[in-house]
Amino acid sequence: MKEESKILYVLEASWYAMVKFAEKECSREIKSAEKILRKHGRLPEKKSKT
Q1: What residues have CB less than 8 Å from 1, skipping those under 6 apart?
Q2: What Rg do the C-alpha atoms of the chain give, in angstroms?
Q3: 28 phi and psi, to 5 degrees?
Q4: Residue 23 half-sphere exposure toward CB, CA atoms < 13 A
Q5: How many angstroms separate the first and last alpha carbons of the chain?
């Protein structure tokens, strides 16, 4: 494996872990921010799951 490939692999794994951690630990804050942004038209309305 080339050095660049190793670095990218580690970066991807780190990014994935950070995203998963943020979703778990900050979900209330994320939802609150999304609600405010939607209210002010900065985010599209949530699509209903059917």
Answers
A1: 9
A2: 17
A3: -65, -45
A4: 6
A5: 44
Q: Does the model's pTM come out above 0.70?
A: no
Which amino acid, one-letter code, is at 37?
A: L
- Render pLDDT for 1-23 as a digit per residue (tens, 0 to 9): 789 999 999 999 999 999 899 88
**Cβ-contact 42, 33 below 8 angstroms:** no
Question: What b/e readout covers 5-23, taking b as 16+ CB neighbours within 10 angstroms?
Answer: eeeeeeeeeeeeeeeeeee
CA 30 to the chain's CA centroid: 9
